[in-house]
Write a structure and sequence with these properties.
Residues 47-223 form the FAD-binding PCMH-type domain. InterPro entries: BBE, FAD-bd_PCMH, FAD-bd_PCMH-like_sf, FAD-bd_PCMH_sub1, FAD-bd_PCMH_sub2, Oxid_FAD_bind_N. Keywords: FAD, Flavoprotein, Glycoprotein, Signal. It comes from Triticum aestivum. This protein has 407 residues and is α+β, with helices and mostly antiparallel strands. The chain folds into three domains: 3-103, Uridine Diphospho-n-acetylenolpyruvylglucosamine Reductase, domain 2 (2-Layer Sandwich); 110-223 and 369-388, Uridine Diphospho-n-acetylenolpyruvylglucosamine Reductase, domain 3 (2-Layer Sandwich); 228-276 and 279-300 and 307-346, Vanillyl-alcohol Oxidase, Chain A, domain 3, CATH 3.40.462. It has 14 helices and 14 strands. The strands form four sheets. A five-stranded antiparallel sheet has the order 5-6-10-8-9. A four-stranded mixed sheet has the order 1-2-4-3, with helices on both faces. A hairpin with a 4-residue loop joins strand 5 and strand 6 (118-122). Bound molecules: dihydroflavine-adenine dinucleotide (FDA).
C-alpha cells in the first residue's frame, strides 16, 4: 500500500540512529550476513531478488524500533530465524520489492524452568539449541518438535512443527503456552494483549504474516532417561521395499504412541527410522510381534544436501495399495512435479482440494494455496490478519491476506 512513498534511505537512517547493526546491499559484509542462513543453495544465484538491508537486532527493543522504522518509511520487513524456508521467502522475494530482512540469529536464548517444566525460547534459536538446553537442565524433559537440529524455532513454530514425538505429544504448537509478538506499530504483545485470535493464528498460520515473534513459552514433556532408536532399510530389488511400506502403513498407526516409525522412500530404497520412548527391553517384544521380519537387511544410504532442492507435500488419508507403491518406486527417478501429479488420486484428493504443509512452503501450489495449507481455517486466519496487521505490512508471496473487502 505504501510502496509509492517508500523511503529506503529514511529506513537506513532510522535504524542507524538507534545503533542497530545494518548491512546494505553492495557493502562487503552484506553477502556474508545474507548467506549465513540461506539454507537452500539455489537462492545463492545472482538472479535472486535480495533484501536491500540485513538488519541484526540483538534485543527486543531493536526489533521494535526496526519495525517502526520500516512501517514509517514504507519499507516492508521479512523475518528470518534460521532460513529453512523451502522457497527462501524469509530472505528473498519473487517479485521486485525493496524490503529489509530482520535476521533473528542473535536472539537465541533458551531459559528452562525445571520447577514448572516450561521454557522460554527466542525465535533465533535452532531446534538443536533448544533440545540441548533442555537436556542440560534435565534428562527427563524434552520437547516435541522437528527432526533437523538446524531448523529455526521462529519459522518452525509459526507453521506447526512435526517431529518424532508427535504420536505421543502432538506438534510443537500443541505445547506453546505463551509468546511475545512485535506488531506493525512496534508494540510488544503477549498472549493476553494480542488476544485469542492472533495467539491462535501465530501457532500454525505460518510465519511472516502477523508480526515478529520474539520468543515462545513452551510446555516441556516428560521423557524416559533412556530411549531407543533404530534404522532399517529395505531395497526394492525383490520388491521388499514395496512390501515393507505397504505393511508399515497398517502397522505404524496401530503401534503404541511411544513408538514412532518414519518411512523415507528414496530411489529404490525404503528407509525406516524409529524412536521408541523406552528401553530396548520393552521395544523388542513389540517389534518382534509385528514388523521386524518384514523389514529386510540393513544398508546405509547417504543423502546429499549440498545442492539446491525443490520439495512439495500432501497428506495420505487412506493406506496406499501395494500396486501403487510399486509405481511410486518407479517414479522416484522422475522430477518432483511429475510425482506430485501422479500422487493425486492417493492423497487428500478428489472432491477436496489438495493439502500441503505450510512449513514445506511450495510456490507451485498456485493462487489457491490458502485452503490447501489451512482448509476451512483460512478464513479465520484472514480475520486474525485484519486484526493485527490491517494494512498488510508483513507480507510475502504466501502470507495470509486480508479478508475480501478489507482495506
Ligand atoms: P525461516 O527463517 O526461513 O522462516 C520461515 C518463515 O517463517 C518465513 O516466512 C519467515 O519470514 C517466517 N519467520 C521466521 N521467523 C519468524 C519470526 N520470528 N516471526 C515471524 N515470522 C517468522 N518441518 C517439520 O515440521 N519437521 C521437520 O522435521 C522438519 N525438518 C526440516 C529439515 C530441513 C533440512 C528443512 C530445510 C526444513 C525442515 N522442516 C521441518 C521445515 C521447517 O519447519 C520450516 O522450513 C520452517 O519454517 C523453518 O523455520 P526457520 O526459522 O529455519 O526458517
Amino acid at each position: 500500500s505504501s510502496s509509492s512513498q517508500a523511503s529506503p534511505a529514511g529506513f537506513l537512517q532510522c535504524v542507524t540512529k538507534a545503533n542497530i547493526s545494518v548491512f546494505e546491499q553492495g557493502e562487503d559484509l552484506f553477502n556474508t550476513q545474507l548467506h549465513k542462513y540461506m539454507r537452500n543453495p539455489k537462492f545463492l544465484a545472482n538472479t535472486t531478488e535480495r533484501p536491500l538491508y540485513v538488519v541484526m537486532p540483538v534485543n527486543a527493543h531493536h526489533v521494535q524500533v526496526a519495525v517502526r522504522c520500516g512501517s514509517l518509511n514504507g519499507v516492508p520487513i521479512r523475518v528470518r530465524s534460521s532460513g529453512h524456508d523451502y522457497e527462501g521467502l524469509s530472505y528473498r522475494s519473487v517479485h521486485t520489492e525493496g524490503f529489509a530482512m530482520l535476521d533473528m540469529s542473535e536472539l537465541r536464548a533458551v531459559v528452562v524452568d525445571n520447577q514448572t517444566s516450561t521454557a522460554w525460547v527466542e525465535s533465533g534459536a535452532t531446534l538443536g539449541e533448544l533440545y540441548y538446553a533442555i537436556s542440560k537442565a534435565s534428562s527427563l524433559l524434552g520437547f516435541p518438535a522437528g527432526v533437523c537440529p538446524t531448523v529455526g524455532v521462529g519459522g518452525h513454530f509459526s507453521g506447526g512443527g512435526f517431529g518424532k514425538m508427535m504420536r505421543k505429544h502432538g506438534l510443537a504448537i500443541d505445547n506453546i503456552i505463551d509468546a511475545e509478538l512485535v506488531d506493525v506499530n512496534g508494540t510488544l504483545l503477549n498472549k493476553t494483549t494480542m488476544g485469542d485470535d492472533v495467539f491462535w493464528a501465530i501457532r500454525g498460520g505460518g510465519g511472516g504474516s502477523f508480526g515478529v515473534v520474539l520468543k515462545w513459552q513452551v510446555r516441556l514433556v516428560t521423557v524416559p532417561a533412556t530411549v531407543s532408536v533404530f534404522k532399517v532399510s529395505a531395497s526394492n530389488s525383490q520388491g521388499a521395499a514395496v512390501h515393507a511400506v505397504t505393511k508399515w502403513q497398517k502397522v505404524a498407526p496401530a503401534l503404541p504412541d511411544e513408538l514412532y516409525i518414519r518411512a523415507l522412500v528414496q530411489n529404490d530404497m525404503a528407509v525406516f527410522r524409529a524412536v521408541f520412548l523406552g528401553t530396548c527391553d520393552t521395544l523388542l517384544p513389540l517389534v518382534n510381534n509385528c514388523t521386524v521380519e518384514d523389514l529386510p537387511k540393513r544398508t546405509t544410504s547417504k543423502i546429499d544436501s549440498s545442492h539446491g532442492f525443490k520439495a512439495t507435500t500432501d497428506y495420505v488419508r487412506r493406506p496406499i495399495r501395494r500396486e501403487v507403491w510399486a509405481k511410486i518406486f518407479n517414479k522416484q527417478s522422475k522430477w518432483v512435479r511429475d510425482m506430485y501429479a501422479f500422487m493425486s488420486p492417493y492423497v487428500s484428493s478428489n472432491s477436496m482440494s489438495r493439502g500441503a504443509y505450510i512449513n514445506c512452503r511450495d510456490l507451485d501450489l498456485g493462487p489457491n494455496w490458502g485452503p490447501k495449507y489451512f482448509k476451512g481455517n483460512y478464513q479465520r486466519l484472514t480475520k486474525a490478519k485484519a486484526e493485527i496487521d490491517p494494512h498488510n505490512y508483513f507480507r510475502n508471496e504466501q502470507s495470509i491476506s486480508l479478508p475480501k473487502g478489507a482495506s
